[in-house]
Amino acid sequence: MKKIQFFDTTLRDGEQTPGVNFNTKEKVQIAKQLEKWGIDTIEAGFPIASVGDFEAVKAIAENVETMTVAGLARCQKADIDRAYEALQHAKHPQIHVFLATSPVHMEYKLKMTPEEVIASIKEHVSYAKTKFEKVQFSPEDATRTEKNFLLKAVQTAIDAGATIINVPDTVGYSNPTEYGALFKFLIDNIQSEQEIIFSSHCHDDLGMATANALAAIENGARRVEGTVNGIGERAGNTALEEVALALYIRKDFYQSESSITLNETKRTSDLVSRLSGVAVPRNKAIIGANAYAHESGIHQDGVLKNPDTYEIITPSLVGVNENSLPLGKLSGRHAFAAKMETLGYQLNDEELKDAFKRFKSLADKKKQVTEDDLIALMVGQSQECNETYRLGCVQLQYVSDGSQGAIVSIDTGEETKTESAIGSGSIQAIYNSIDKILGQKPELKEYYIKAVTGGEDAQAEVHVTLADTENNRQFNGIGIDFDVLQASAKAYVKASEQFQKEVGKA
Ligand code: KIV
Ligand code: ZN
User: Which of 99, 277, 357, 492 is the most interior residue, by most CB within 10 Å?
Assistant: First the structure.
């Protein structure tokens, strides 16, 4: 069996999904869950991109134990220095240096000649090697790069000290036959005295990101890069859960294994979905709500007689419908603390006290508090700790002309502001009031509600996406509450917080 290393870039490429903005606390929480899931290397961010990115990479480096922590850098000394600074306290640091090598990128984006690109790779990979033992190099847009030039770029990086070569299909242009052949070509033709690990990095523009990654593995790649739930720039990246399951279920074919703890898959997916605000489509492989649902009578009959008839993955293998005992209002602090620990939360005394109080108030309203409820509860707690705007009262009034009126107050950190507005429905009235308080006029791009769990006493989870049409930017927010209107208001305030930070008042 070959060991395939998993490199997760949910917090870097995944955060490039429109509307996704994780704060540092959320990033650390995701990083810890990724470690539990069995990820070998996490790309924690792009340290030079912003102070926030730098702080998050640093915090992750200080908080994880076994995972290698990587930081992204362009071929620029300042980028490499900043990554070095952010990763100083990582137990296992790694740098990921990249430079585009395709004709279109070199000519129009970089405005560099091929010779200048080769010289820059040599200079900057060598420089990175003076600071990091593990240096990864990516020739960006590799799949649209002339093959012999790509080989030259890769060989230059290896000669300068890179031991990991990542081959990005940056624009999702390749297909399995072509991408696999590219790995074979590079692996057969590079020269190196030491072992070089080849890695796949695929985007899903043509829906082939997972197939391409698996083709790379068939052709010698020993590492796969991707994100949880496949989130990422445009159509997203390779969904790591899909690769992990494909390797496991079809080990007869791939003859490969990974360190992924499969029954942590659903939990990891749920956490990323909640914190990113990006919902998982119902029909998504492995973790979608319908992935284990059998609708037709013939299928149901077959599965009842023998699940093997139509089920190649048992739901419990990936942690779906695990038979875990729900908590209730009689559950004590110890049971609660133990459950939080199994869910991957390491809470200090203060956090535990606050979480337990929230749990008790939830258990008063809900017969059974499931794992999903607890994760939702923690999302709420983490949002409140990091929020700039705190939602106060939300009051609704029916207006005689058939429209709705709302009065909303928000604590902005400096003062508590209250405004009222009308709308053709309750939600519009609430959102108009919030816009008035914050002096903004974003476009409401998306709004949807889902229930955190099944049952009549389920909490509502509302997702909101606001857009700044002028700059083509989006901001997600989620709100969880028993009351749909309250959850809707929370989600809008959360997305507005990001909107205000990045775009400012209208
Ligand atoms: O898609 C891409 O080319 C990237 C690189 C930075 C590796 O994300
Ligand atoms: Zn990418």
Answer: 492
